[in-house]
Amino acid sequence: MRTISLCLIVKNEQSTLCSCLESVREAVDEIVIVDTGSTDETKEIAGRYTERIFDFGWRDDFAAARNYAFSKATCDYILWLDADDVLLEEDCRKLKELKLSIAEQVDAVSMIYHYAFDEFGNVTMSLRRNRLVKREKGFRWHGAVHEYLAVSGMVINSDIIVTHRRVHRHSDRNLMIFENRMRRGEPFSPRDLYYYGNELSDHQMWEQAEKIYERFLDTGEGWSEDIISSCMKLSDIGERLGKPQKQLAYLWKAMDYDEPRAEGCCRLGAYFLKRNRLREAAFWYRLAVRREKPKELWGFVHDAYWTWIPHLQLCIVYCGLEQYTRAFYHNEMAGRYRPDDSSVLHNRRYLEGVLRDEAL
């Protein structure tokens, strides 16, 4: 059986750390906690689970902190989590089974990350990340912000899910790191530009975000998933800033890098719906419904676009086209994902009345 070191970097995580460690403690053989300056009870909570607690002076570099944590691991494999992540019971069981079955030649294991949820508990954003790596390979983290773990060799994709339970709201921390780097004149990689654009977008700094995303695309480099995501974000910014030509152009541009995805199809549907071009809107929403969500996609997947959103929007479109039976069908399909959604309930009452009157 292989052994696993769990590595976390933490700062002021007293509200989440216990849940994280409780959820995974049965599946790991060692817990390594690297504290970057907590002023609450984080270290005291960590002390209930491990003696391997280390201090690391924060220097605006997440990769440096994670690499330091990895350097303290002693087991065969290293698992990394954030303090607001958990393994649900089924996923903890799968991890324990993986310890028993993992082949010696496996260098890394990716896991699914359920990153965000709606008010009904449905996953709204997910992605795949390398989570478990062979210690002896010495894999390193890269990037001061939104760091990534570079792996090579044999990588297997597992069905283990890491569940994110966000407690903290967005802070200015990452944005300030990027802006301080920009003021110091540090070079930005294409990846840096993409994530800087994300931070600006998260802070609703639309004009600045637009410039940075476009600068990223102008490099002609970067990961295709980041390019597609930037096109989606630039389309959204184009709508916000009243630039419909840009809004549409970036949706078409995204298709230069992959076949149409539900995220883009729904945006195109919304574009035409807003202009009361209902048949065109219906085409794109129907295409979104037909698309099968990729199982091995590594970029961010906005699950709502692959599930209920196109159905709910088709209900609106078909109502506008006075095709009420179709509208009712798609409203009920949306209801499978969100049975208590107020819009679904309202639509059902309205459409039941319309269909009843039509039958008379």
Automatic annotation (TrEMBL):
Residues 5-138 form the Glycosyltransferase 2-like domain. Transmembrane segments: none annotated. GO terms for molecular function: transferase activity. The keyword Magnesium does not apply. The keyword Transferase applies. It holds the Pfam family Glycos_transf_2. This is Glycosyltransferase family 2 protein. It comes from Paenibacillus pinisoli. It comes from the Bacteria. Keywords: Transferase. SUPFAM superfamilies: Nucleotide-diphospho-sugar transferases, TPR-like. Gene3D superfamilies: Spore Coat Polysaccharide Biosynthesis Protein SpsA, Chain A (3.90.550.10), Tetratricopeptide repeat domain (1.25.40.10).
